[in-house]
Amino acid sequence: MDIKIEKKKGLRPKHYGYVVIGLILLFMGWKIAFGNSASTFRTEREKLSIAEVSFGKFDDYITINGNVAPISTIYMDAYEGGRVTEKLIEEGAMVKKGDVILRLENRALYEQILASENNLALKQNDLRSTKLTFDSRQVEGSKDLVNSQYELQKLKRNYEQNKALFDDELISKEEYLTSKENYELSQKQYEIIKLQTEQDKVLRNTSLSDLDDDLARMKKTLSMVYERIDHLNVRAPADGQLGFLDAEIGQNIRQGQRIGQINVLTDYKIEASIDEHYIDRVKRDLTAVLDRNGTEYTLRLRKVYPEVRNGKFKVDLVFVDKKPETIRSGQSYNIKLQLGQSNDALLLPRGSFFQSTGGQWIFVLDVSGDIAWKRPIRIGKQNSRYYELLEGLEAGEQVITSNYDSFGDAEKIILK
Q: What is the 3-state secondary structure (H, E, C) of 303-368?
């Protein structure tokens, strides 16, 4: 008779393996579901720049590079065109105001002067002829007026005598009326001659005055033409150094063409370009410092140019008091431009991470120093060495300050 064998209850040895495998799978599933899913980037520590956040004094300045230039530059443009016949002063030479630098020749201008001189001579002859004519008419008119006055007095006397005789009935009425009519006619003729003489006098004065005015204008025009001849001598407009001269003997110069410049060396300025990021903070009269061989020289920001080109705008700075003895045009200096007062703040060393993040976040190392996590921050002002930290970090924390472009979208950096 067969005996029924009952199965043993409970876990047998082979079941322990299944339990272990199941627990491992459960743990892996939990890690996937609830573990940290941050994207990770692995890199070597030696390839990174790591800096420590510190607390200290933040100096609100920026370092700019500027070039020395003359305090002012006066450009020389040709008043008159012409061909260069003589070059008296070379580039780089010191000149005084009024020194002749170039001599030009202009044949057309010479012909214009001759024409103006001929016109002036003709006008002078016309004036003399007109004066002679008016003088002759004035003499004739005076003679006619005297004769008319004499005739009037004679006929008046004859009329008065005949009137008395006619009243006494000693002469005929016809003889009396004839003398009366002759007297009245002579009186009218005298008035006409007198009026004509006065009108000739007025006309003479008016005509001669107009001719004198025309003659004065022509003389002024001729003097201006003579000035144009003098402008063929290109002179230095001020004391200084002849910076450049774009003219050679035989070269034709156009009227108004720029041919050179005078650098006024009574003082110097420094021309610099600043990143447009600072355009709202850079104002006139800000203070700057230039360090030269251990000596500091104070400058004042004199002018801010409003135009922005290639992400930069220009400024001019001038020395407040003393300046380097060996200063020369074209020299380059590094200058600290003070934008505001110094203050205590958290300091983050500058780095190229700023170009990748815009200062919005940074990678911060944990306590072990082997892992860095992405963390938002807020940056205030900046100078050539530090950023002013407003929030997001604490003194003593270490951060990655090198470029982040190779990190992609990683939020966790593992350092090997």
A: EEEEEEECCEEEEEEEECCCCCCCCCCCCEEEEEEECCCCEEEEEEECCCHHHHHCCCEEEEECCC
Query: Is the CB of residue 127 less than 8 Å from the CB of residue 212?
Result: yes
Neighbours of 288 (CB within 10 A): 26
Q: What's the pLDDT score for residue 34?
A: 44
Closest-CA residue to 127 (of 234, 232, 4, 212): 212
Note whether 320 and 27 are within 8 A (CB): no
Q: How many angstroms separate the CA atoms of 125 and 130, rounded?
A: 9
Q: What angle do CA 210, 212, 216 make, to 5 degrees?
A: 115
Residue in 249, 268, 8 with CA at minimum distance from that of residue 105 = 249
Give strand ranges (E) for 187-279. Answer: 233-235, 240-245, 252-253, 258-275
CB atoms inside a 10 Å sphere around CB 193: 20
pLDDT tens digits for range 206-217 = 877 777 777 777
d(CA 415, CA 232): 77
- How confident is the model over 299-323, as pLDDT tens digits? 999 999 989 999 899 999 999 988 8
Whole-angstrom distance, CA of residue 313 vs CA of residue 275 = 7
pLDDT reported for residue 125: 79
* Distance in Å from the first CA to the final CA of the chain: 74
Q: Tokens 């004036």 sit at which residue? A: 127
For the beta carbon of residue 280, count every other beta carbon within 10 angstroms.
7
* Six-digit token string for 338: 């003070």
The residue written with tokens 């992400």 in the block is 311
Which distant-in-sequence residues (6+ apart) come within 8 Å of 375 by Cβ? 361, 362, 363, 364, 392, 393
CB of 293 closer than 8 Å to CB of 280: no
Residue keyed to tokens 């082997």: 370
* Sign of CA pseudo-dihedral 352, 358, 359, 360: negative
- Whole-number pLDDT of residue 33: 46
45-51: average pLDDT = 90
* DSSP 3-state of 378: strand
Phi, psi of 23 (to 5 degrees): -65, -40
Two tokens, residue 190: 């005298």
pLDDT at position 288 is 92
Q: Are strands 412-415 and 40-43 parallel, antiparallel or unpaired?
A: parallel
Tokens of 12: 């047998």
pLDDT band at 263 (very low <50, low <70, confident <90, very high): confident
**Short-list 407, 405, 347, CA closest to 372:** 407
